[in-house]
């Protein structure tokens, strides 16, 4: 009974992020006009929400408090998050719940495949929490989700946004051999800020994961993204671009970090739309096939349209 009362009196932030409760609160800065979006609530948004609820799906749109949820759900686009809603990492920027997850659901891959088929999606993005508690980091489970989508929705193109599978030997190969159309893994920030922003990860391991994809299957598109506004310098962002290109990354996304709660990492500043345009020009000059750089850019935003443009850009460059 004592535990129940304690749970009921705790705030939602405490329930989602117990590891952050001893951190000092930081001020949440007022958003500039270019970051304001309409509150969700259209008829199609509500219809998508009902589909998500009725099928018991978890979406990163909700779990990560994405600012684009109104736009995407109104267009019947949703990024599915597998392997539960609880992450074993405690990144300072992320709004996904942290803690000890439940066991993997062996029926989940078939359920996701069926849901994608019933939704009639042309392109689907599948992401997941980190599962450091599982021997292979959940790679085999993730790969089975891809296989089930191929089986039940063969015309749907698949983009995966994976964990880093740190210290999980052989996991990367399992994911690459699942042969998604786009293999996405986000570097998130510049190397100098990893200990503060992404303490459970290692920058060069994440970079190496992206490089492995191209080495094992050169035809797979690779994609990675970072957030800005965390205290990085322009020169550091440009160095990350060079690192990505050295690893063969095709598509870079750059978006503004938005602070989920006062307990999360503080925003250093709001990067202006003009600065994002400059980043886009620099990235294109460095040879990326695709660049998405804007305050509201997120990894999965407009993913289907971007995939079509990505294929067209490769065709124009290589003829295949």
UniProtKB/TrEMBL annotation:
Sites where the protein binds [4Fe-4S] cluster 2: 87, 91, 94
Biased composition (Polar residues): 1-10
Superkingdom of origin: Bacteria
UniProt xrefs under CDD domains: Radical_SAM
Gene3D superfamilies: Aldolase class I
Catalysed reactions, as listed in the record: [[Fe-S] cluster scaffold protein carrying a second [4Fe-4S](2+) cluster] + N(6)-octanoyl-L-lysyl-[protein] + 2 oxidized [2Fe-2S]-[ferredoxin] + 2 S-adenosyl-L-methionine + 4 H(+) = [[Fe-S] cluster scaffold protein] + N(6)-[(R)-dihydrolipoyl]-L-lysyl-[protein] + 4 Fe(3+) + 2 hydrogen sulfide + 2 5'-deoxyadenosine + 2 L-methionine + 2 reduced [2Fe-2S]-[ferredoxin]
Record region (Disordered): 1-25
UniProt pathway: Protein modification; protein lipoylation via endogenous pathway; protein N(6)-(lipoyl)lysine from octanoyl-[acyl-carrier-protein]: step 2/2
Enzyme Commission number(s): 2.8.1.8
Enzyme class: transferase
Cofactor(s) needed for function: [4Fe-4S] cluster
Location(s), subcellular: Cytoplasm
GO MF annotation terms: 4 iron, 4 sulfur cluster binding; lipoate synthase activity; metal ion binding
GO biological process terms held by the UniProt record: protein lipoylation
Annotated protein name in UniProt: Lipoyl synthase
Originating species: Brevundimonas subvibrioides (strain ATCC 15264 / DSM 4735 / LMG 14903 / NBRC 16000 / CB 81)
Gene symbol of the encoding locus: lipA
